[in-house]
Known about the structure:
By secondary structure, the protein is α+β, with helices and mostly antiparallel strands. Helices cover 39% and strands 22% of the residues.
Amino acid sequence: IHDPLASSLDVLDRALRDVAHTCRADHVVLATLHADDRVYLDLGIGLTTEQLQRGGCRVGEGVLGRVIESAQAIVAESERVSRDDGRGGWPLPDSSINRYLCVPIVSRAA
Length: 110
């Protein structure tokens, strides 16, 4: 039996792995905005299920929340993130991250 959701998740997982390989990144996540105005980490490379569940933020909160709010990509050095607002929605200690690259994928569908 073909499961469209499982197939879609498999495609997204492969895409995240390609991004991680291309960017030489240890950690890559796909985060989505939910109806409760919270951003949740849905899929990740280099993170445990517990770390994904611990991550996330509200719109406008932290680096990830500001990227969602502005719909603009950002590259931030880890020391700037630490100085600004702590972990920025990211579930790992800042000391393990050199740079954040956040790119929103925006749907313009009505």
